[in-house]
């Protein structure tokens, strides 16, 4: 009886860890398998900034830094929360509507860019940013 | 009017705390009166108080916007407390109770008692008015009292970094205040 009890606790803990692992993956980012290929073949030629065709926006001091970012179509942008509190990246204008949902302090979220957009933090709406596509 | 009483009693108690501390500082004319341990205590208490006001709002208010605002206040201030507490621990600083902390807690007691008596739109307005007054008072205290007197650079840096967040809260509270003017 006791063994059964211990086993079931083990299973619940294991499940809990697995589930929390999944959550962390979601927060780190959604990366398309197609885009993976793009990153490896085009990384050397394209991308403003880092080698991987990836650009970084730091969330800190209640600001998105930089506030305006220009990237090439297909580049990945990573938002890293270096602030104290939870933020998000939300779009709700010009017929577009999506959100990163909560990005906790020290966590990041990434998106492959295929169009221009204005975004804001839905938790702290005066925080705004813009991502724009560069013409090649 | 009830709202006016809440705002003025709160501002009065914090103002008297600031005046008291300022007069002590000027009388001394040398080293600051608040130690880092005391500053840490003030920082944690000031944040906890807004979390507590948020709890009252979640309990009493029926308005979705007020509840969302209150939840954001609670989440943000809890995160700041965690950051401050973690840093204090790392620095080996134990928050020390002091006159400013006591004054903040006294203000909270008075304001909470009044808020808890209100309902409906009257509550919503009083809550938002208090959030504006409170955040303004805390921003002033952080700028003029806490930051200048902090010895440890990292603790000072934390307080400096918190200011944009407090400013934003104040801005949000003022936006809410405009909506609940009637």
Please give a handful of descriptors for the protein shown.
heterodimer; A: 136 residues; alpha/beta; Immunoglobulin-like; four-stranded mixed β-sheet; three-stranded mixed β-sheet; 2 helices; 27% helix; elongated; B: 182 residues; mainly alpha; 6 helices; 85% helix
State the share of residues found in helices of chain B, binned by percent: over 70%
Number of strands of chain B: 0
Largest sheet of chain B: none
- What is the count of helical runs of chain A? 2
Number of spatially distinct domains of chain A: 1
Mean of pLDDT of chain B: 88
Proportion of β residues of chain A? 25-35%
Molecular shape of chain B: globular
User: Which CATH top level class of chain A fits?
Assistant: Mainly Beta
Sketch the topology of chain B as an H/E string, one letter per element: HHHHHH
The CATH H-level superfamily of chain A is: Cupredoxins -  blue copper proteins
Number of strands of chain A: 9
Rg over CA atoms of chain A: 18 Å
Would you write up a description of this structure?
- With 136 residues, chain A is an alpha/beta fold.
- Chain A has a single domain, classed as Immunoglobulin-like.
- Chain A contains 2 helices and 9 strands.
- Chain A has helices spanning 2-28, 33-42, and strands at residues 54-60, 63-65, 68-71, 76-81, 90-93, 96-99, 108-112, 117-120, 128-133.
- In chain A, strand 8 and strand 9 (128-133) form a beta hairpin.
- Chain A is elongated.
- In chain A, 26% of the residues are buried.
- In chain B, 38% of the residues are buried.
- With 182 residues, chain B is an all-alpha fold.
- The two termini of chain B are 13 Å apart.
- In chain B, helix 1 (2-28) packs parallel to helix 5, helix 2 runs parallel beside helix 4 (99-115) and helix 5 (120-149) runs antiparallel to helix 6.
- Chain B has 6 helices and no strands.
- The A-B interface holds A 61-63, 83-86, 105, 123-127 and B 72, 75-76, 79-80, 83, 161-162, 164-165, 167-168, 171-172.
């Amino acid at each position: 009886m006791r063994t059964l009890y211990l086993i079931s606790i083990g299973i619940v803990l294991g499940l809990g860890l697995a589930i929390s692992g999944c959550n962390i993956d979601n927060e780190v980012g959604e990366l398309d398998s197609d885009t993976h290929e793009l990153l490896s073949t085009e990384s050397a030629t394209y991308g403003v900034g880092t080698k991987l065709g990836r650009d970084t926006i730091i969330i800190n001091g209640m600001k998105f830094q930089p506030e305006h970012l220009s990237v090439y179509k297909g580049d990945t942008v990573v938002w890293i929360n270096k602030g104290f509190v939870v933020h998000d990246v939300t779009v709700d204008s010009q017929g577009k509507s999506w959100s990163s949902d909560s990005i906790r302090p020290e966590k990041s979220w990434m998106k492959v860019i295929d169009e221009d957009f204005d975004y804001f933090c839905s938790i702290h709406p005066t925080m705004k940013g813009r991502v724009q596509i560069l013409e090649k | 009017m009830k709202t006016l009483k809440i705002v003025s009693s709160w501002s009065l108690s914090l103002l008297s705390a600031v005046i008291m501390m300022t007069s002590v500082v000027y009388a001394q004319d040398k080293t600051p009166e608040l130690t880092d341990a005391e500053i840490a205590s003030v920082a944690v208490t000031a944040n906890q108080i807004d979390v507590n006001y948020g709890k009252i709002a979640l309990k009493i208010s029926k308005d979705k916007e007020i509840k969302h605002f209150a939840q954001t206040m609670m989440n943000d201030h809890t995160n700041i407390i965690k950051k401050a507490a973690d840093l204090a621990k790392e620095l080996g600083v134990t928050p020390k109770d002091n006159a400013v902390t006591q004054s903040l807690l006294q203000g909270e007691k008075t304001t909470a008692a009044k808020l808890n008596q209100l309902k409906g739109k009257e509550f919503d307005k009083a809550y938002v008015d208090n959030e504006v007054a409170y955040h303004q008072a805390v921003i002033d205290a952080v700028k003029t009292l806490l930051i200048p007197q902090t010895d440890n650079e990292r603790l000072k840096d934390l307080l400096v970094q918190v200011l944009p967040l407090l400013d934003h809260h104040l801005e949000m509270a003022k936006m809410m205040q405009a909506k609940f003017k009637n």
